[in-house]
Amino acid sequence: MSSARLLVRDLVQLATPSGRDAPLRGAALSDVDVLEDAFVVCAGDTIEAVGRMRDLAALDGDVVEVDGRGLCAIPGLVDCHTHAAFAGDRVEEFSLRAGGASYEELHARGGGILSTVRATREAGADGLRAAVERHRSWMRGQGTTTFEAKSGYGLDRETELASLRAIRDAGGVPTWLGAHAVPPEFDGNADAYLDFALTEVLPDAARIAEAADVFLERGAFDASQARRYLEACRAAGLALRLHGDQFTEQGAIPLAIELGARSVDHLEATGAEGVRTLASSAVVGVLLPASALFLGRPMPPGRALVDAGGAVALATDFNPGSAFCESLPLVCSLAATQLKLSPAEALSACTVNAAHVLGRADRLGRIAPGYRADLVLLEAPDWRYLAYHLGGRLVDRVVTAGELR
Ligand code: NIG
Ligand code: FE
Fold this sequence. Notes:
Layout: E1 5-17, E2 32-43, E3 46-52, E4 63-67, E5 71-75, E6 77-79, H1 91-98, H2 103-108, H3 113-141, E7 144-150, H4 157-169, E8 173-179, H5 190-208, E9 211-214, H6 223-235, E10 239-244, H7 252-259, E11 263-266, H8 272-279, E12 284-287, H9 289-295, H10 302-307, E13 312-314, H11 328-337, H12 343-349, H13 352-357, E14 375-379, H14 385-388, E15 395-400, E16 403-404
Parallel strand pairs: 1-4, 1-5, 6-7, 7-8, 8-9, 9-10, 10-11, 11-12, 12-13
Antiparallel strand pairs: 1-2, 2-3, 5-14, 14-15, 15-16
Bound molecules: N-(iminomethyl)-L-glutamic acid and fe (iii) ion.
Residues 81, 83, 243, 317 line the site of fe (iii) ion.
């Protein structure tokens, strides 16, 4: 935290989700305030004032000024779903998939997630720390000021806990994805693996992680196994998330609602009834269009969820297998072009609503007095370049907790 105040001045535009509510659902996702010729004052790690340049009062004390000419400010982006704690890569598998092999087939043959489990176990705690820090810096370069990351590539006690510590120590929000896949030493016996994970790993994981997540899918964990895992995690004090409806509908949405989960993530296979049920619940639908694109899968029904009054968030799903993509701006472009969300809806989805999924919407996701001083300065004449400039040069600078980086 710096002692001088930070004044970002002469911004072409400043855009922020309006109001103070979270999550934003349905039509409220479009409520974005846009100020032209704007300034922001940050005091320490907190936003102190926001307004039009003509209303900027003289500031006393030390002030560091940032020239915002040619730039637009949006809130620091919040990535509420990543798998950043991994070692190695899956470039070989990527090439095979380009030649026609399917993601699920590779997984069934012991490749896919399990090949990253081998690499992650070999990396050790120091290797994992270095990997998470490298991934964090990639994310920051794309405007992400808060990231969630899941374990799930260790699947043994030591590597799961090392993953969660590496995420926490890199400033991320740790989620225990203890039920990501059944590791090879359990020879396909998911129930025996869960016995181990819930007895040997959960008590310590619950001291580091904030939430638990499960991959509810054919070839991973079924609905009764997911229920058992999530109920135990909830009893240990963790918030709940689910990977659901990625390839097939296996009851993730009703289970999430029944257990009071924060989110169901993926939803590429969700049908009309699932859309209605999820949209009228308190559970946020986390859309991961980069993952659908990367795997050549159908896009999740983002437009239908919002039109039905639902609360949606957008995230990257950054991981080596199904979404090697750390860019929330690219995800916003996909939201506009593929999911038919407006730039305003996309902005709300990867700021305030993503912050809500992480239990932090009181401090994160808006540019307004009292919120944490997290800003992205876009090199753009209009803030909607966030979605419009497809894969282009966009992020000029990032302010995290009042520090200019
Ligand atoms: O969200 N679907 C399950 N887990 C990740 C992918 C993990 C991997 O392929 O390594 C996902 O897409
Ligand atoms: Fe994921």
